[in-house]
Specification:
The structure holds 2 protein chains of 2 kinds. Chain A is built from 11 helices and 17 strands. Chain A is α+β, with helices and mostly antiparallel strands. Chain A has a 6-stranded antiparallel sheet. The radius of gyration of chain A is 24 Å and the shape is globular. By secondary structure, chain B is α+β, with helices and mostly antiparallel strands. In chain B, α1 packs parallel to α2 and α3 runs parallel beside α5. Classes of the chains: A alpha+beta, B alpha+beta.
């Protein structure tokens, strides 16, 4: 059951739809295989493999709607999940926002989403990545901890109006932290949809290099600094903007974008003209899903172009109510980059900070998109265009709106993982040099 | 069920495992959400499957499947052994397990009313009543919801354990937003209710409708409230606020796996290093006593046995301000118990799914209320001795560093305290502190009359991230001279 071809998935969705008695039904299947290996204190700690599945049925009786989920594929379980969905749908009060299920749609294939090498990845492959990292860490008298994960998913969606959508996705994720006895700590990580697209050795080398260079950090006064942010930090903060890019929230006055309605209507810039952010399922750098949970096709969308907000996601219900076209939310984000290297950004900075990654990024005020978080695993002082010494970590309080206004230089765009994601997120961002970033207090954490 | 368990354990043993266990789990969840005047989501979910964990030459292997048959159990047990063997080359110290009592037992969350037996209509009626009360009181928007969950768990091991448990939890909640069309500003207020390890009786006993009305009024007050003047101030914190501060600044730093570096790559390590056990002055000697308890009534982490098959218990973490005990699991007792001088089995092992690897997770962990000899001591008694302070109700924004030193917390409602009196509402408040200094500034703990459990369904840790449900209890508390920030910005 772990894997279903499109024909097999169609047989299951047909079976579920045939068992349905509700006027409209939508079904979703998601079988998956996941393997992972963790290491810490320079040895493997746990390692696991799991095959699971989600089978979800949503039943519609006019404006009444309800859903049920199971993970069992036998005929009795399939019949039962349909029965439970119909039972809860009939009991649910009418929801005036209920939209009918969609009929057949046309999807653009996203060829980079699946690769056979990642689909067939083994525990031995993961063990080899770990063995190499541990060998180098031990040789340098460092302590390494990390994680390798692979996954292979199928997603199938079908409706009683004849929609059928199917895709396969694979991914590999690797990240590690190397720590030294003299208080150094370095991190590196990445993700790819294919084994070929991942370079674990370079990540291991990077984490170890940062660990050795960040030893004996000194305290620096908190305050506002020019920062050189690697793509991971930029992604961490820039992706938080997404929750505000919702047309209903904007119209209702509860998005940070609500205060800029006049400027947006007039095509004024809200961000630096250097900022262009798109989503595009067929991107080869960070490919994404090509249909959403309702079966709407996902297409290339410019969210911000040269600093101007170009698109805001809009649900089918809100689009109908307000006379707009529906626009599904982004499933990947790609920010156009520049050509400056990190070294060049440092060289042009009289005084500032070079960071490695952020940690524990959380919202403080949705009105201003203010977030707080910390630096982690390598924070360096830049003086006179050179990295001069490691400094202790900081807590920061900052809004991505300001970050995307105060850009002085941009690096090339590359695929990244954010600080709290396991599975391969589809994000590609450049490094940025940003002025006036607000660090509010010191952290003693290493 | 026993036949399936026998297949798993026999297969693992025959392939070379020195230890094996199987968890065969069934999960149920029901959720309803209401937006303004209508139900926007009604959903039910069931998951079923098993996970087999094996120890081969001192290395763990794990595999799991939702396909529950004898053939699949044998296949998955074989896979778990193969995974353990693949990792043998990277082993440094083989895992050992201390002996545990052979448990053949059943356990259930003590509930009065099964939440799954309460009709969908009753639940929908409650949420719509909550929303109506909020809208009537001036809310622009409200989303309310109810979660009901059940974990039905069977655990069997080569140590002879055979344990069946049923864990029930409920969570009623809402979030209100008020938009001021004149200024374009908006404010939110979340319910102060908490998820609980109990039955529907908690939902029936919680005044969610009344609170929704009050919250809508407070939300409007927030928009007109004075922006806080930053600086050092005394804080008077409610139990509904403090649970999260306890969780982040005491719960996570006192996990032994973090302290030793097992979570260094993601969740982080801890400033509470093993050499400080029994020595570290964590906080105020007079006021700070913290207890971990997986047997606590209504606790989200409460159960009869952990996922190692160890019977749950209660133990001190901080006594008279001094750090005295880590949270641990079975394998840590064998490897580190003698070194630490603490060989008690503390039953802190948990996996959030049949397909997840069990590892160390936080038990319910609470700040003991102070014994005032029967006298009621709450915020009023604390405020009386504050010249310049802030009283905070409810949990809000939260962030803490990877060693749990530097934290920043917000809240739901903030009140100015001036010259011994609780005054007007404030906005734009957050406080920042360093954990040992903060707990050292604790100078008053309320009486048991005000003790309440708060908690989370979604405490994240591990790679891949697993969620843990955990409760934290406290009475009102007062802290002196804490750094208060103004979070107001213009963009």
């Amino acid at each position: 059951m772990s894997f279903l071809t499109d024909a097999e998935a169609k047989r299951v969705t047909d079976k579920l739809l045939a068992a349905a008695t509700a006027p409209e039904t939508r079904v979703y299947l998601n079988p998956s295989r996941r393997g992972n290996t963790r290491f810490a204190r320079n040895e493997v700690t746990t390692s696991g493999f799991a095959e699971t599945c989600i089978i979800q049925v949503t039943s519609f009786y006019g404006l009444r709607r309800g859903s049920a989920q199971t993970n069992q594929f036998d005929d009795a379980s399939l019949a039962d999940v349909v029965r439970r969905a119909e039972e809860i749908a009939r009991l649910a009060p009418e929801d005036p926002e209920t939209m009918p299920v969609l009929g057949p749609q046309t999807y653009t294939a996203s060829p980079g989403l699946f690769s056979a090498d990642a689909d067939q990845l083994t525990a031995e492959y993961r063990a080899n990545i770990v063995a190499e990292a541990l060998k180098i860490a031990r040789a340098k008298d460092l302590e390494a901890a990390g994680f390798v994960q692979n996954f292979s998913d199928a997603d199938a969606l079908a409706t009683s109006k004849g929609l059928f959508a199917y895709r396969r996705t694979t991914g590999v994720v690797y990240n590690l932290t190397a720590r030294s006895k003299a208080g150094g700590s370095g991190w590196a990580g990445g993700t790819s949809n294919s084994v070929q697209g991942l370079d674990p050795s370079s990540m291991t080398a990077r984490a170890i290099d940062i660990a050795l260079r960040s030893e004996r950090a000194v305290a620096l006064e908190p305050g506002n600094y020019t920062v050189v942010l690697p793509p991971e930090c930029v992604a961490d903060l820039a992706t938080t903007l997404l929750s505000g890019f919702d047309q209903r929230r904007v119209d209702e006055g509860r998005s940070f974008l609500s205060q800029f309605r006049t400027q947006m209507a007039g095509g004024q810039k809200l961000f630096s003209e250097k900022v262009t952010i798109v989503s595009d399922p067929v991107s080869l750098v960070a490919p994404s899903n090509n249909f959403d949970e309702e079966g709407q096709p996902l297409r290339r969308t410019e969210w911000i172009s040269a600093g101007v907000v170009k698109s805001i996601a809009c649900s089918r219900f809100w689009a109908k109510k307000t006379g707009r076209e529906p626009l599904p939310s982004a499933e990947n984000l790609i920010m156009t980059g520049g050509t400056a290297s990190i070294d060049e950004m440092v060289a042009s900075t009289p005084r500032g900070l070079l960071l490695t990654r952020f940690w524990y990024v959380r919202p403080v005020d949705p009105q201003t998109a203010l977030y707080t978080g910390l630096t982690r695993d390598g924070c360096f002082l830049i003086e006179g265009g050179k990295v001069t010494r490691p400094v202790k970590n900081f807590r920061w309080n900052e809004t991505p709106v300001k970050m995307l206004r105060n850009i002085e230089a941009m690096g090339p765009t590359r695929r990244v993982i954010t600080s709290e994601q396991d599975l391969g997120s589809a994000l590609a961002f450049p490094a940025l040099k940003v002025t006036d970033f607000t660090f509010s207090s010191l952290s003693d954490a290493i | 069920m026993q036949e399936l368990a026998a297949v798993a354990l026999e297969t693992a043993r025959s392939k070379g495992a020195s230890y094996a266990d199987i968890r065969i789990n069934r999960y149920r969840q029901q959720s309803l959400f209401a937006r303004e005047d209508h139900i926007e989501e009604a959903a039910t979910e069931e998951r079923y499957g098993f996970g087999v964990r094996v120890l081969v030459d001192g290395v763990w292997g794990f595999a799991a499947s939702a396909r529950v048959s004898k053939e699949d159990v044998a296949r998955i047990a074989t896979e778990a052994v193969a995974i353990a063997k693949a990792n043998r080359a990277s082993m440094r110290d083989p895992v050992e397990l201390v002996p545990i009592p052979k448990a053949v037992d059943t356990w259930k969350t003590p509930i009065v009313k099964d939440p799954f037996q309460v009709s969908v209509q009753s639940k929908a009626d409650l949420l719509l009543a909550v929303n109506a009360a909020a809208l009537k009181a001036g809310a622009s928007f409200i989303t309310s919801g109810i979660f009901c969950t059940e974990e039905n768990k069977v655990f069997a091991s080569t140590d002879g354990c055979d344990i069946s448990q049923v864990l029930t939890r409920v969570w009623p909640l809402f979030q209100i937003t008020v938009v001021d069309k004149a200024t374009g500003r908006f404010a939110t207020r979340d319910s102060l209710s908490s998820p609980m390890g109990t039955g529907w009786e908690y939902v029936e006993g919680y005044p969610l409708v009344e609170e929704a009305g009050l919250a809508a009024q407070q939300c409007q007050q927030k928009l007109a409230a004075k922006s806080v003047a930053p600086g050092k101030k005394d804080l008077v914190l409610s139990p509904e606020h403090l649970w999260l501060t306890i969780h982040e600044s005491i719960g996570h730093p006192t996990e032994l796996d973090r302290a030793l570096g097992y979570e260094a790559n993601f969740a982080g390590t801890s400033f509470v290093t093993p050499d400080q056990l029994g020595k570290l002055q964590y906080g105020s000697p007079k006021w700070m006593n913290v207890v971990a308890d997986k047997t606590q009534r209504d606790g989200l982490a409460t159960c009869g046995y952990d996922d190692d098959g160890v019977k749950t218990t209660e133990f001190d973490v901080v006594k008279d301000g001094r750090f005295v005990g880590y949270q641990t699991i079975r394998e840590q007792v064998a490897r580190y118990g003698k070194l630490l001088g603490d060989t008690r089995l503390k039953a802190c092992c948990y996996a959030d799914d049949f397909a997840s690897v069990p590892f160390q997770r936080m038990p319910n962990l609470s700040l003991r209320p102070h014994d005032w000899g029967g006298k009621k001591v709450g915020w009023e008694q604390m405020v009386a001795d504050v010249k310049d302070g802030v009283l905070i109700e409810g949990a809000g924004s939260f962030s803490i560093d990877q060693q749990r030193f530097n934290f920043q917390f917000g809240g739901q409602v903030f009140w100015e305290i001036k010259n011994g009196k609780k005054g007007a509402m404030l906005r734009d408040v957050a406080y920042q502190a360093r954990t040992p200094q903060f707990w050292g500034s604790l100078d008053m703990v309320g009486s048991p009359h005000f003790y309440k459990l708060g908690g989370s369904f979604f405490d994240g840790k591990g790679q891949p991230v697993q969620t843990n449900s955990v409760s934290h209890g406290a009475s009102w508390c007062r802290f002196r001279s804490v750094n208060v920030l103004n979070t107001g910005r213009k963009i």
